[in-house]
Design brief:
Distance between the termini: 27 Å
Number of strands: 13
Number of helices: 10
Largest sheet: 6 strands, mixed
């Protein structure tokens, strides 16, 4: 049994290492789940973010690595059980000279420029909290946005707090700032996605996710990439759904 899975370049979830191998927290999760359901060959396909939904719909590959679940995306693809819940954050210049600690703080600084990746949920999150269109610069991928930040073309880049920590690790030119969230705030969840007609693979993946998520092996694999109980535990009740 062969499965083709699409991914983008977004550490620590999925990316292409210098030796050409495909690595990351969600790559390891996909491998563990797919091997357990009897998949013997996994083809990992690098694509652009805007190809994810149409590509899997058109049968160019069988599933996508986890992305945020939204009502709009659910119109086009079928999502698996959620595998993590993640809060947003910014990458900023060292010392965060403009005190950009939230979308609201950035919106209040009319001259501040925010980098986002086309099609990702941070764009709508920024707009919904008052960030103006003139403050937003759209990029194709995370490496391009980080390079623009380092070059001073933008003042912040919006991504997940976990992803931003990974991007800032070992890079003294940027600093990660997590957005503050309330104690009872419900963070957005992410899941694998499939063509709506691919019932067999979706069902098999969900059955294995129910068994595997929250296990010692799962937690150990995720911890290597900075994904902790904070990002995992809130999605565990969905295993029995």
């Amino acid at each position: 049994m062969k499965v083709r899975i699409a991914y983008i370049e977004e550490p620590p979830y999925y990316w292409t290492a210098e030796d050409g191998s495909v690595v990351g927290a969600d790559i390891e999760l996909a491998d563990a789940v797919l091997r357990a359901i009897g998949v013997t060959s996994i083809q990992r396909m690098p694509v652009s973010f805007d190809e994810f939904l149409p590509g899997v719909q058109q049968g160019r590959w069988d599933m996508n690595v986890p992305i945020f679940v939204t009502p709009e995306r659910s119109r086009y693809v079928a999502f698996s059980l959620p595998v993590w819940a993640l809060g947003d954050g910014f990458l900023v210049h060292p010392g965060n000279p403009k005190a950009l600690t939230s979308y609201e703080a950035l919106a209040a600084r009319g001259a501040a420029r925010l980098g986002v990746i086309a099609g990702q949920v941070q764009l709508e999150s920024a707009k919904s909290t008052g960030v103006g269109d003139g403050q937003i610069v759209v990029f194709r991928n995370q490496p391009e946005a980080v390079a623009a930040l380092v070059a001073g073309k933008i003042d912040a880049f919006a991504g997940t707090a976990v992803g931003n920590r990974a991007a800032a690790d070992g890079n003294p030119a940027v600093e990660a700032v997590a957005h503050e969230v309330g104690k009872d705030a419900k963070l957005p969840v992410g899941a694998f996605s499939f063509d709506k007609g691919n019932h067999g693979l979706l069902q098999a993946v969900n059955e294995q996710l129910r068994r595997y998520l929250g296990s010692a092996d799962h937690r150990a694999r995720m911890a290597k990439y900075g994904i902790t109980r904070t990002e995992i535990d809130s999605v565990l009740p969905a295993k029995s759904a």
